Amino acid sequence: MASDITTVAVLGAGSMGHGIAEVAAIAGYDVWMRDIEESYVEDGLDQLEWSVGKLAEKGRLDEDPETVLSRVRTTTDLETAVGDADLVVEAIPEDLEMKRNLFADVDEFASDDAVLATNTSSLRVSDIARAVGNPERFCGLHFFNPPVRMDLVEVVSGEQTDPAVVDAAYEFVESLDKTPVLVRKDVPQFVVNNVLTPLMEEAGWMLDDGEAEVRQADAAMVFRRGYPMGPFELADFGGLDVFVHSREQWDDPVPECFETRVDRDDLGRKTGRGFYDYEEGDGVDYE
Ligand code: 3HC
Predict the structure, then answer these.
(1) Does residue 257 share a domain with residue 174?
(2) pLDDT band (50, 70, 90) for residue 249
(3) pTM of the predicted model, to two decimals?
(4) Which of 14, 128, 209, 281 has the most Cβ atoms closer than 10 angstroms to its Cβ?
(5) Does ligand 1 lie within 6 Å of residue 189's CB atom?
(6) Do 116 and 214 belong to one domain?
(7) CATH number of residue 260's parent domain
């Protein structure tokens, strides 16, 4: 475990939040997972329990699932979640005002020594950090989906982040048995998503122009490049609404094939249909 961190509060129990809570619990931290409604907390905990059980089944867990799960406590109360936390990781929707409002409250309830981190994927860390009195203790910890299976985590230094806070965050990521990548320039989408997004966009423009088909583009990247998923499969996996929202908030153009699906509420795996139809059971076979 990272030397000064024993208790981690994760704010948000969605796909990223419950996954971050899970990796922290697996690494031995005491975890509070908090969301604004009991049903969100319960859904997140159900998924966390499923995932821990699956890891155990696959022989990927060093302890009993029950031991890992005993480290996770849940609440809807912010003060309870962050009051004793040494590290607070926020993983709520990508809305700047929502994140700022949350951190203004966290600033009130958390200990002055706690490190505050955002899991934002598309906003600037420094813009969120302005919500707290001491932005020196604020950094980015950008996990990838699903956190429990993705090795990489971006550790982002905001304009005012204290180097000691970056070091603590870096050490925390290492203690999760993951690979930290230090991002020194706080640009929207950091490094990984800036590299990844054009791939998904280009596939989208080609589909719009009739120059590529969904399975064909995915197969090209999976079989020719060795990627675990092609661009459309990955978009379905992360949620098409998440992708479109991240482009629109910076006024970046979005391929029509993404927008029409979002307008139809075909958001990918989570709604059963996106570029692929998961309800029909055809899933992704590239043929
Ligand atoms: N927890 C536990 N087990 C899991 C799991 C999870 N979260 N997800 C999948 N598994 C299990 C599956 O259920 C399966 O079990 P089964 O064989 O009993 O059904 C087992 O792991 C293996 O599943 P797969 O055969 O599907 O596993 P793969 O070897 O293909 O790996 C994957 C799955 C890790 C998701 C892989 O497909 C992958 O790496 N995909 C790319 C993901 C990626 O690129 N993520 C980054 C997206 S960008 C991002 O996150 C940016 C952010 O800002 C939004």
Answers:
(1) no
(2) confident
(3) 0.94
(4) 128
(5) no
(6) no
(7) 1.10.1040.10
d(C-alpha 105, C-alpha 221), whole Å:
44
CA distance to 7, 27, 168, per residue, from 2 (Å): 10, 10, 7
Choosing from 139, 157, 183, the residue where a domain stops is 183
> Ligand 1 centre and the CA of 146: distance in Å?
6
Using CA atoms, how far residue 153 sits from 121, 150, 156, 252, in Å, is 11, 8, 9, 25
- Tell me how far apart the alpha carbons of residues 30 and 36 are, in angstroms, rounded to a whole number: 20
pLDDT at 210: 97
Instruction: Assess: ipTM above 0.95.
Output: no
Q: Which residues are catalytic?
A: 121, 142, 154, 193
Q: How far is the CA of 236 from the centre of ligand 1 (A)?
A: 13
Q: Same domain, yes or no, for 70 and 129? A: yes
Which token pair is 18? 């419950």
Residue closest via CA to ligand 1's atom 38 equals 228
The tens digit of pLDDT for each residue in 87-137 reads: 999 999 999 999 999 999 999 999 999 999 999 999 999 999 999 999 999
Q: Is 54 touching ligand 1 by the criterion CB < 6 Å?
A: yes
Q: How many domains does the chain have?
A: 2
Tokens representing 83?
A: 């009051």
Instruction: List Cβ neighbours of 137 (8 Å cut-off, separation of 6 or more).
Output: 114, 115, 116, 161, 162, 165
Residue 65: domain span: 7-183
Whose C-alpha lies nearest to ligand 1, atom 1?
A: 51
